[in-house]
Automatic annotation (TrEMBL):
InterPro entries: SQR/QFR_C/D, Succ_DH_anchor, SuccDH_FuR_B_TM-su
Protein name in the entry: Succinate dehydrogenase hydrophobic membrane anchor subunit
Compartments, record wording: Membrane
TM regions (residue ranges): 35-54, 60-82, 103-128
Named cofactor requirement(s): heme
UniProt-listed Pfam families: Sdh_cyt
GO BP: tricarboxylic acid cycle
Oligomer and partners: Part of an enzyme complex containing four subunits: a flavoprotein, an iron-sulfur protein, plus two membrane-anchoring proteins, SdhC and SdhD.
Amino acid sequence: MRDTVITKDIIANPKTHYGNAKASTRHFITQRVTGAINILFLGLLLYLVVRLAGQDRTDMVAVIGSAWIGLPLAVLIAIVAVHMRNGMRDTLEDYLHGRVYSLVMMLNTLFCLVIALAGIGAVLKLVFWG
């Protein structure tokens, strides 16, 4: 592997290859779109917090078990997991490089996937099986 010092001249020159342009654009757009969708779903989250404040488990299961609430909540969990993975990727790219970066990114992806599957599974269980 050759050691190239990256300077402002290399970055400013559009003929140099600095990163993967398509992947970077996809990452940028995904981060902005998931952020916007999270803002839209904020109303659902606020409704759930206000509606379920002080309620017992039976009421929570009844509200989240409704398809009108549970299915959008499951979609929200998936979108938040994608947004979380991309946000952590930004931080990891700044501080880690090489094989350590690859390993930590794999662990980041695995963690976000486990969180998403557990959350979605729990909500869908309430929606379809009470």
